[in-house]
Amino acid sequence: MCGEPLASGHGITCGECLADKPAFTKAYSYGLFEGALKEAIHSYKFSAIRRLAPPLADLVLSMGLPPVDAVAAVPLTKSRLLERGFNQSMLIAREIARRTGARLLPHALEKVKDTPAQAGLNRKERILNLKGAFICGAKDKNSVSGRTVLLVDDVITTGATARECAKTLVRAGAGEVYVAALARTKK
Questions:
Q1: How many CB atoms lie within 10 A of CB 167?
Q2: CA distances from 125 to 122, 130, 158 (A)
């Protein structure tokens, strides 16, 4: 369900998803956050090599995602967006929407709580850190209603961000939410 690599090839759901079912239907990730994929994501995100968005979108689209009506991205706070100059997940989401014909919802989610960086936090701390951090944006709130939404992120670590964003979209009326990320970290 969440895309966590399982120890056994026989299981289909991790223990965390069994104990606390996420609001999203399924999470996909292209690969593990290591090697060349990690380097590409870091170059894209921290060196502002925006031209990597189309080939990174190719990777996401190569996973055989389910059909969706709309595409949204995990948002950044306004201060982080000003600092970085772009939302790396939004650029990939825009490419996916353009290529699939799905509607791009650039304001479906807004991050209204300026949270400390998630890096270095464990799962429980990440969940607490993100509680109430997202709202469904006023411009796209009605656009989410009844739609199957693909939520795009660059990296899934514990799944706390994907869970909180999906919960926000479902509360706003999304029919179903899928999550697609470039990479997933090992626990």
A1: 16
A2: 5, 9, 10
User: Residues 6 or more apart from 110 whose CB is under 8 A from it?
Assistant: 75, 134, 135, 136, 137
45 neighbors 181 (Cβ within 8 angstroms): no
The pLDDT tens digits for 4-36 are 555 555 555 555 645 566 779 999 999 999 999
DSSP-derived letter for residue 50 is: G
CA distance 98 to 54: 11
Task: Look at strands 70-73 and 103-104 and give their pairing.
Answer: parallel
pTM: 0.87
Tens digit of each residue's pLDDT (9 = 90 or more) over 74-129: 998 888 888 889 999 999 999 999 999 999 999 999 988 877 666 666 777 777 77
Cβ–Cβ under 8 Å, residues 92 and 71: no
Q: Which overall architecture, per CATH, does domain 25-184 show?
A: 3-Layer(aba) Sandwich (3.40)
- The answer to whether residues 156 and 182 touch, using CB atoms and an 8 Å cutoff, is no
